[in-house]
Amino acid sequence: MRLARIYQQQPLNSGKIIHLSKEAAHHLVRVLRLDVGAEFILFNGEGGEFKAHITSVQKNSVSAQIGIFNPVDNESSLQIILAQTIVKPEKMDYVLQKSVELGVTHIVPLITERCLLPKLSPERWEKRLAHWQAILINACEQSGRTKIPTVSRAVAFKTALQQIKADIRVILAPNATQTFSQLYSQQWDFQQGAAKESNRSVYTIHEDCELSGNTAENLSAKSMVKSCYCAAVLVGPEGGWSESEMKSALAADYLPIQLGPRILRTETAGLVALTLLQAAYGDISLNLV
User: Fold this and answer.
1) pTM for the full model?
2) What domain count does the chain have?
3) CATH code, 40
């Protein structure tokens, strides 16, 4: 039986006894019906996870002792920023959940010209952000990830273009002429030459979407393709991008990419793009031979 995984935003050390959060306690005891002695997995988003067991169940609190640390690392070498136009709440929740399962690193909710933007007060927007963060945590618990992706506050389209920095920048557009396979072929050709340079930079994404670099030496072209890229994907609303938005994206060096002959819903398109990026540059393996 697969052990339940619980996220706790606090320091975790082997041998330590901790009090679980109210939400975690409710899930373990009321939903899963676990009792004293039952084992589960703890993680705090800093990498790795701990085996733990329940030591005490009280009316208003549940305690657990932290056991052996497992330095598991199932994060993709590819950093992915998903800039998703805001859609209806249930669809947005779906995109957030599934993008975590597919290894997204950072999510930027986009305000575009044709999106169905809810009229919310600042307080309601903060509650919406907290709700999104909770979905990311729950998805990490389910999918086995040990680091929590980040989600930013909703930002205007042009602001996102200014803030997001990535090696591969893609805007999904049904009428585009280029496909992901063509993109991969071009990037591979570029990397074949770049691999000969000993001071190639390796980029990582931070919460503010900016990039920092450090030197990686003696990397083969294939290993560099697998580990050195940060990709950004822009996903539009159901009504599509406006002409001005597409022009702005092109000016910011975003490459229009189409996902095939059929029109995908906005909540589907981004997930397909994540899958293709992970298959080309990340940790989804396609053993077709």
Assistant:
1) 0.83
2) 2
3) 2.40.240.20
